[in-house]
Amino acid sequence: MKFIEIEWRDDIRGFWLDPRSYLGELPKMSSQLPQGARGFATDPGHYDFSSPRCVKDLGFETLVTPSDSRQGLEILFSPNPWKHEEALRIRYDGVESLSVDWESQAAGGGVKDSLLLDEILPADAGCRHEIALTGATILIACADLTASWEPHNP
Fold this sequence. Notes:
This protein has one domain. The strands form three sheets. A four-stranded antiparallel β-sheet has the order 3-4-5-10. A four-stranded antiparallel β-sheet has the order 6-9-8-7, with helices on one face. Strands 1-2 form a two-stranded antiparallel sheet. Helices cover about 10% and strands about 40% of the residues. The model has no long low-confidence stretch (mean pLDDT about 90). The longest helix is centred in the first third of the chain and has 10 residues, at about 20-30. Strand 4 and strand 5 form a beta hairpin. The protein has helices spanning about 20-30, 35-40, and strands at about 5-10, 15-20, 60-65, 75-80, 85-95, 95-100, 115-125, 125-135, 135-140, 145-150. By secondary structure, the chain is mainly β.
């Protein structure tokens, strides 16, 4: 990630997360983000660790790509029962690229596939969304995204 700091710390046996640099830059670049990405990134609960609308601790559930992934892409995150009331669905339009690095965040064992934090940056074709999970990093370049909180139906 360019601004958000994520680091495995043995002393706390977990990840240390700091979105403050990103939150400092976000007001300067939010006007360059597409409408859906801007609304999601600037939502007051997005990086508030005590908010039920904070992405931290959501569970990675599915990533769906249609046969023509440029038509769209969808990721569903399940709620953490201790924190979230709803699931988060993110739909991507005009997908330019998708990459998944399954080893990038893995450290010290522990729970896999839990969302740590994400970062949305402006890009030539729209935006670049980087999602850090406990066991992977997902990077999507797209024209825009739509995030919606909805009831979870496992």
